[in-house]
Amino acid sequence: MRTVQTTKDVHDGVSGRVVIILADFNREIADGLLRGCEEVLREYSSVQWKVHRVPGAWEIPLRVQQLAREKQCDVIIALGCVIKGKTQHYDSVVQECARGCMDVSLREDIPVVYEVIATENEKDAQERSCGRGNKGRAAATVALDWLEKLS
User: Fold this and answer.
1) What's the number of domains the chain is made of?
2) 3 lies in a domain?
3) What is the C-alpha to C-alpha distance for residues 27 and 20, in angstroms, rounded to an integer?
4) Using one digit for the tens of pLDDT, what is the confidence trace for 63-118?
5) What gap in Å lies between CA 79 and CA 37, rounded to an integer?
6) Which is it for the CA torsion 27, 118, 129, 67, positive or negative?
7) Residues contacting residue 40 through CB under 8 Å, at least 6 positions apart
8) If 0-12 CB within 10 Å is exposed, 13-18 middle and 19+ buried, where does residue 120 land?
9) Is residue 75 part of a domain?
10) Buried b (16+ CB within 10 A) or exposed e, 27-41
11) Given a cut of 80, is residue 11 above it in pLDDT?
12) Is the residue at 19 inside a domain?
């Protein structure tokens, strides 16, 4: 018989401080990602977290950098959603947000879990921000992995 481990089994005893940076643009999708993330983190009383909101994905890297330099957390989670429109703006926002977060992570030596979902349409965004496919849950699980490795 195969035993399935839950997140709680895998990360039992983990502790640390997490900051979630949430882009408010596409608010309904973003709030779904946040709900999923917090559901997972809530299982761990020794994990503390705070949420910092920014207007959109473009602003995430600056806030990641500010919080990384404050050294008040162990892991940063970046959450948001960019839905493709009819212009090239989508590509710039997605690429620069990802690059900015990676640059800060490497420069400041702090894990930045990146789950700014980029989708072609709102239906795909809904699927990735609700239920079992919620990427916020996935981000929290990766953050727990990092907390475990850092302890």
Assistant:
1) 1
2) no
3) 15
4) 999 999 999 999 999 999 999 987 778 889 999 999 999 999 999 999 999 999 99
5) 9
6) negative
7) 7, 136, 137, 140, 141, 144
8) exposed
9) yes
10) eebbebbbebbeebb
11) no
12) yes
In this prediction, residues 25-32 reach a mean pLDDT of 96
Q: Which residues contact 10 (CB under 8 A, 6 or more apart)?
A: 144
Q: Is residue 7 part of a domain?
A: no
What one-character DSSP code corresponds to residue 4?
P
SS3 content of the chain, % helix, strand, coil (to 5): 55, 20, 25
Closest CA to 60 of 150, 139, 134: 139
Amino acid at position 61, single letter: P
Cα separation of 96 and 119, whole Å?
16
CATH number of 77's domain: 3.40.50.960
pLDDT in tens, 44-65: 878 999 999 999 999 999 999 9
Average pLDDT score, the chain? 91
CA atoms of 54 and 23, how far apart (whole Å): 5
Residues forming beta bridges with residue 47, ordered by sequence position: 16
- List, by residue number, the catalytic residues: 89
Q: What residue type is assigned to position 27 of the chain?
A: R
Residue type, 149: K
Structural domain of 121: 15-150
